[in-house]
Amino acid sequence: MAYATLPKDVLLSVEQRIPGGLSTEDWALLMEVLNLLRWVMPAGSKALPSETFKVIEDALRAHYAKQLPQA
What is the pLDDT averaged over residues 38-55? Predict the structure, then answer.
Protein backbone atom coordinates (compact mmCIF):
# COMPACT_ATOMS: atom_id res chain seq x y z
CA MET A 1 0.00 0.00 0.00
CA ALA A 2 2.83 2.43 0.84
CA TYR A 3 4.44 1.62 -2.51
CA ALA A 4 1.35 2.83 -4.34
CA THR A 5 1.54 6.24 -2.65
CA LEU A 6 5.16 6.92 -3.76
CA PRO A 7 5.80 9.07 -6.80
CA LYS A 8 6.82 7.07 -9.89
CA ASP A 9 10.32 8.63 -9.93
CA VAL A 10 11.19 7.34 -6.45
CA LEU A 11 13.03 4.03 -6.44
CA LEU A 12 12.50 1.95 -3.37
CA SER A 13 14.93 -0.81 -2.49
CA VAL A 14 14.69 -3.05 0.53
CA GLU A 15 17.46 -5.50 1.26
CA GLN A 16 18.81 -7.28 4.26
CA ARG A 17 22.51 -6.78 4.99
CA ILE A 18 24.74 -8.62 7.38
CA PRO A 19 26.67 -6.29 9.71
CA GLY A 20 30.31 -5.66 8.87
CA GLY A 21 29.86 -6.85 5.32
CA LEU A 22 30.40 -10.43 6.47
CA SER A 23 29.46 -13.37 4.30
CA THR A 24 26.52 -15.48 5.37
CA GLU A 25 28.91 -18.26 6.41
CA ASP A 26 31.10 -15.91 8.49
CA TRP A 27 28.04 -14.39 10.17
CA ALA A 28 26.75 -17.87 11.07
CA LEU A 29 30.17 -18.78 12.50
CA LEU A 30 30.31 -15.57 14.53
CA MET A 31 26.83 -16.22 15.93
CA GLU A 32 27.88 -19.78 16.84
CA VAL A 33 30.97 -18.48 18.68
CA LEU A 34 28.93 -15.87 20.57
CA ASN A 35 26.31 -18.43 21.57
CA LEU A 36 29.05 -20.77 22.77
CA LEU A 37 30.60 -17.99 24.86
CA ARG A 38 27.24 -17.21 26.44
CA TRP A 39 26.69 -20.89 27.22
CA VAL A 40 30.18 -21.55 28.65
CA MET A 41 30.82 -18.34 30.60
CA PRO A 42 29.75 -18.55 34.25
CA ALA A 43 26.67 -16.51 35.15
CA GLY A 44 27.64 -13.06 36.39
CA SER A 45 31.17 -13.35 35.04
CA LYS A 46 33.01 -10.03 34.97
CA ALA A 47 35.71 -11.31 32.59
CA LEU A 48 36.84 -8.69 30.10
CA PRO A 49 36.60 -9.55 26.40
CA SER A 50 40.40 -9.34 26.15
CA GLU A 51 40.75 -11.98 28.89
CA THR A 52 38.14 -14.21 27.29
CA PHE A 53 39.78 -14.05 23.87
CA LYS A 54 43.20 -14.76 25.38
CA VAL A 55 41.80 -17.95 26.93
CA ILE A 56 40.32 -18.92 23.55
CA GLU A 57 43.60 -18.16 21.76
CA ASP A 58 45.63 -20.21 24.25
CA ALA A 59 43.22 -23.15 23.99
CA LEU A 60 43.29 -23.10 20.18
CA ARG A 61 47.08 -22.84 20.06
CA ALA A 62 47.44 -25.76 22.49
CA HIS A 63 44.91 -27.86 20.60
CA TYR A 64 46.48 -27.32 17.18
CA ALA A 65 50.14 -27.24 18.27
CA LYS A 66 52.41 -29.61 16.39
CA GLN A 67 54.63 -31.87 18.41
CA LEU A 68 58.29 -31.28 17.58
CA PRO A 69 60.30 -34.38 16.74
CA GLN A 70 62.61 -35.38 19.58
CA ALA A 71 66.31 -35.20 18.83
Answer: 87
